Structure formats: C-alpha cells, structure tokens
Amino acid sequence: MSLALYMDENIHGAIINGLRQRNVDVLSVQEDNRSGISDPEVLDRATELQRLLFSQDDDLLAEAKTRQMRAVYFPGVVFARQSRVSIGSCIRDLELIATLGKPEEFENRVHFLPL
C-alpha cells in the first residue's frame, strides 16, 4: 500500500509533476480548490483526506507541533526547507516515503527532508 500525499500551496510544480511521473498519488491544495486556506485548515484537510502533508512552510511546523502537544491526530507532515534540498532530492525522498512508508510511521509526526 502506498501513501497518498497532499501538497501545500507553496510546493513547486516540478515536484508534483516528478512524483506523478513516478506514479505517486499526489493532490495539491490548488487542485483541491483550497487555495488561500490557513495552515490549520490545510492540515485539517490532509487529515480529512488521510493524506500525508508535504510542506515547505515554517508556519505549518508550528501547527504540527501544537497538535502534537495537544494530542490532536494528524496523518503526518513531511517538511523540507527550500534552501536545503533540491527539487530532485524532494522527488526521490517523497517517492521512497510514498512507496515504502506505512501510515503508522508518520501519524502525529514531522519528518524532515532530505532523508
């Protein structure tokens, strides 16, 4: 079973396209008609859809930490700083996560790229 990904609004289209070329199930905030929603709403939507959220937004890290401290369930966040990881590395690492990861390995956690 592969993990489905939900892409935050600020994710470069090349990452989304690269993942799709590798048959990874990806849905962006824009494709979900949710452009402009707040960070808590993005994480709520990822939770509703049971998709692992990929973000490069520091504010989403704070939201995930708040949920961890309050024991509020979320399916997980994968985070990468744009200045520290290339598009190619994001694609490679996210493909590995989606293909080999298990939902319970990510629940209520934040994982950082590069792996």
Molecular structure report:
The chain is α/β, with parallel strands linked by helices and 115 residues long. The protein has one domain: Rossmann fold, CATH 3.40.50. The protein contains five helices and five strands. 29% of the residues are buried. The model has no long low-confidence stretch (mean pLDDT 96).
Topology summary:
Elements: E1 5-7, H1 13-21, E2 26-28, H2 39-49, E3 52-55, H3 58-69, E4 77-80, H4 87-100, H5 103-106, E5 110-113
Parallel strand pairs: 1-2, 1-3, 3-4, 4-5
Helix pairs in contact: 1-4
At a glance:
With 115 residues, the chain is an alpha/beta fold. It has 5 helices and 5 strands; from the N terminus they run βαβαβαβααβ. Strands 2-1-3-4-5 form a 5-stranded parallel sheet, with helices on both faces.
Separation of termini? 20 Å
Task: Give the percentage of residues in beta strands.
Answer: 15-25%
CATH architecture: 3-Layer(aba) Sandwich
Largest sheet: 5 strands, parallel
- Contiguous low-pLDDT stretches (5 residues minimum) are none
The spatial strand order of the largest sheet comes to 2-1-3-4-5
By CATH reckoning, the class would read: Alpha Beta
Residue share in helix: 40-55%
User: Residue-averaged pLDDT, rounded?
Assistant: 96
CATH topology-level name: Rossmann fold
Class from helix and strand fractions: alpha/beta
Large-scale geometry: globular
